[in-house]
Amino acid sequence: MTDRNESYVLDEQVGFLLRLAYQRHMALFMERMTGGLTPTQFSTLYRLREASEPLSQNALGRLVGMDGATTKGVVSRLLARDLIHVEKDGEDRRRYTLFITDTGCRLLDAVLPDVKGSSETTLAPLAPSEREQLLQLLKRLI
């Protein structure tokens, strides 16, 4: 009888390792976050602010990597906190566009040090050259 584990080692699987790294980073993010935002809410606000043109809910979801249902929930929570607002598109009345509010911009500015700090802490075990290499490799995977 052959050993079933000889060709598969869980601790050497990219998905498993990415999930563990993600869990560690999320714990650090939430520990540092003073503005009550989840990582997804932060990313959503950030993408809205950096957008060069108004974004539909679908376009925003694609930019942040969310499916439609998740995007709808995130948008609803941000609307409830007056961090974003929605307007009907001037050219296509069926379409709605999303904008970050002044309140959303102020909150984003306030929490940026928290977010940067969580990234720094996540990457702290790596040398600066390893950090850059990791980020470049992850970008190639996506």
UniProtKB/TrEMBL annotation:
From the UniProt record, give one GO term of the biological process aspect: response to stress
Gene Ontology MF terms: DNA-binding transcription factor activity
Give the superkingdom in one word.
Bacteria
- Sequence ranges assigned to domain HTH marR-type in this UniProt record: 11-142
Q: Which PANTHER family match?
A: TRANSCRIPTIONAL REGULATOR (PTHR33164:SF95), TRANSCRIPTIONAL REGULATOR, MARR FAMILY (PTHR33164)
| Name the UniProt record assigns to this protein | MarR family transcriptional regulator
